Amino acid sequence: MVKCNVDAAVFSSRFKVGYGGVVRDNSGSFVAGVQGIILGRFAPLMVEAIRFREALNGLKSIHISKVIMEGDSV
Description:
The chain has 74 residues and is of the alpha+beta class. It has one helix at residues 44-61, and strands at residues 2-11, 16-24, 30-39, 67-70. It is 24% helix and 45% strand.
């Protein structure tokens, strides 16, 4: 099992949302990182959902399926 901490930032004037996540194992060692940008204008609650969805998609692509997700809001 790993833990993924995720966050997102909204760039309203550019119609972009940036997201990222850091994955660590049970000893706190770095396992992987995920990041990206989504174009569009979104409500704050939607941005929170997007960051989790995109991080989970990134983890799936590197075959990590058992994960504890953690964010800083909602």
